[in-house]
Amino acid sequence: MKHFAVFLLLYAATLFSATFYREDFEGNARVQSWMTTTEEPVEQWLRIGPEFACEGNAGLRIGPGPWHMLRKDVLWKTDSLLFSQGFYFHFFLRIESGPFALGQSFTDLVHFLMIPRSGGYYSNPSLLVERRADSSIHLFALLRQKKEDNPLRVPLREQESRLEPGAWYRIEFFVRIKGDSLSDSLFINGRCAGQGAVALVDRYGLLQSWYLGFGNSRLQGVAAFDMDNIIISADRLSASLNPFSLSAHARNDSLDCSLLFPPQQGVFYIDLNLGAQGFAGSAGERFGVYDGKNNLVFSLYRSDTIFYKGVEGSNRWSKTCRSDTGSPVWSIDATAGAAQLRICMPAGLSPGAWHARARLISEEQAAQYDFPEAVFIVPERPWFFRWYSVLAVAAVLGLVSGALVFRARLREAALPAEMPGSWKRAVDDIETMLLQRFGDAQLDSNAIAGHAGLSVKKAQQVYQAVKGKSPVQHLREIRLERACVLLKTTQKSAAEIAYEVGFSDPIIFQRNFKKAFSLTPGQYRDQ
């Protein structure tokens, strides 16, 4: 067991005030001592920084591993008014998806260590994260009557307990001990996900401590927990997390979009706009006029149909069935408030930074809501696509030798008809690692290949076959995408951003940024 210091902002009032404990990880106030539950160096699995913050300037990231948990010792009496009336353990949570995994797995996220009056100690209640066989992620709670018994799994509502990776959620875990009864309730983004109660065999004397993080190493497919603004209070807080989120990530010739929004009833639409940075189209419409190279506009309704704007300058929407979208992934779940889209990007799009914007229009509530903006990059098309017509002409003209060389290169870059499943899993693993560690300036082709257990040449061959680009090229795109977000949302200098997103030299960052977007970082920020 070892101590380490984390810079925290701690507000403590009396035990019976409405809010008596708060930690927001801002790092500009006094130092508060915590405990860790593993002998591993804390630097290997815990980080504090702005990229992990839901609110403010800093948040906490905990990486997976056996007992990668923080512990706070409190020694609170369970026969106090605090426990008889109950308290809420509030925090913001974001789950980052990890390498591909099969089967069901779980881990503790938060648990309370209780000391019965008869002696000994055990955790009760506990809040856990579960990854199911279908890859969905859920929260659930456990209650015990006594030490070493089979815990009661609190029945939860399936839709309310599900969490989407990459999105922030406001979690409120209510705990009450009154006499011989222990009860708890779980609220996610203000909605009750479930509640339960048990009769205690032995009354408690003290709450010794609480823990948060990865309680064991059995959870697969999750790369990190991001947490912010831990608050313990007697009342539920009125502050609410923005329930709207939008993420967009380019994959080869398609774009993966994930949208979260409050559950909807009745008729509603989501207008989605994908626009090139600096597109100077007409501002007379909400997202500008349709432009096949620079500005795409969709209107999404439920999951059975898609509406799209098919004629430039027209306000008319044409309807098409799902099979016409060319999209293998297309789902909008109104009751869960989630949409997963994979949009096939047409050829000829302007390369560089693009913005994804969305607005939800509810006819039931006669209201409209804007999603936060997301940034993604449309890469330059590979040379063999740009020169495909040249190859055809060369073949017609009888330039056989040159055509054979080009055809050989084309075959090398082409996707196999049936790629081994191990290739796709290796690429998913590498891509997840790139998204998690892009800020590491030491991340290079050797480190990437070593992570996947492949040689550098084999890792590049596999990744190129599946993604159409090398791992290093993809890493550069991810870093530039993150830099675009920081330039628009912070006041950090270009040099600070360069180091934060993983470039070892600001000059190299400036050169890569200018090449990708035809703008300097300063020009991009100002436009």
Automatic annotation (TrEMBL):
Coiled coil start-end: none
SMART domains noted in UniProt: HTH_ARAC
Pfam families to which the protein is assigned, alphabetical: HTH_18
Entry-linked InterPro entries: Homeodomain-like_sf, HTH_AraC, Tscrpt_reg_AraC-type_HTH
One Gene Ontology MF term: sequence-specific DNA binding
Record-annotated HTH araC/xylS-type domain positions: 424-527
Record protein name field: HTH araC/xylS-type domain-containing protein
Organism the protein comes from: Candidatus Raymondbacteria bacterium RIFOXYD12_FULL_49_13
